[in-house]
Design the sequence.
């Protein structure tokens, strides 16, 4: 039966299957920090504070804002008439806006040691005046994660929302971090800290992992029964 998410032991297998220290570090950071692939690829050596054991993550998000060409009111993608002035909208004006957010995340000791070794070996790559940890494209990063998963013998995963099979990608490591965190602590405070760690603006986005983490409970419960009304065990049903 296919899994819905990657488990910590699966990540360890992926790390062991990595051919290079760089690839192992990429797998490790995506899982241990729960960061997005764009965030991981944007980390420079200077963003890491080895003394305090933290890394500063910058997330850049580009959004298009549609406005009415007559009055400047904001429009939705499907707007045919302006809700403010009532004029018919044939071509909306689009303005591209960039949102930059930063968050400082803790790093566990093992990952910090791996980072220190990688930097000491000269693994960081100079790009536009910054020494990026990886210096690779998103396409290359996806390929690395996919190859590590294949070498580790990991199969495809079931999408918990659609039931469809999907391959292991960088975002599945972020999912794995979130699900593992919820399994350890699904309290309100735990989810709030997870939201901060993942950089979610909406709490609802974080809360969805509680549902995924509860999948094991449903599987355990279903195994209690061989068929409707019968216990799976052989013991006395009155106990």
Sequence:
């Amino acid at each position: 039966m296919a899994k819905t998410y990657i488990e910590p032991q699966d990540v360890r297998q992926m790390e062991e299957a990595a051919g290079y220290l760089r690839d192992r570090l990429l797998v490790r950071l995506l899982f241990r920090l729960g960061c997005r692939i764009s965030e991981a690829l944007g980390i420079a050596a200077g963003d890491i504070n080895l003394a305090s054991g933290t890394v500063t993550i910058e997330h850049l998000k580009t959004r298009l804002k549609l406005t009415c060409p007559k009055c400047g009111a904001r429009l939705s993608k499907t707007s045919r008439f302006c809700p403010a002035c009532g004029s018919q909208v044939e071509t909306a004006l689009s303005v591209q806006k960039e949102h930059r957010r930063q968050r400082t995340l803790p790093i566990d000791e093992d990952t910090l040691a791996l980072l220190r070794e990688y930097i000491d070996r000269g693994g960081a790559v100079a790009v536009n005046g910054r020494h990026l940890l990886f210096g690779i494209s998103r396409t290359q990063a996806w390929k690395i994660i996919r190859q590590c998963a294949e070498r580790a013998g990991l199969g495809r995963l079931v999408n918990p929302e659609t039931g469809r099979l999907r391959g292991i990608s960088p975002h599945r490591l972020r999912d794995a971090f979130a699900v593992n965190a919820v399994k350890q602590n699904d309290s309100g405070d735990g989810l709030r800290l997870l939201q901060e760690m993942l950089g979610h603006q909406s709490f609802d986005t974080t809360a969805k992992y509680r549902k995924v983490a509860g999948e094991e409970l449903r599987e355990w419960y279903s195994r209690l029964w061989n068929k409707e009304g019968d216990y799976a065990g052989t013991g006395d049903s009155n106990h």
User: Anything to note?
Assistant: The CA atoms of residues 19 and 58 lie 28 Å apart. Confidence is low (pLDDT under 50) at residues 228-235. Residues 58-104 form one domain. The chain is about 40% helix and 20% strand.
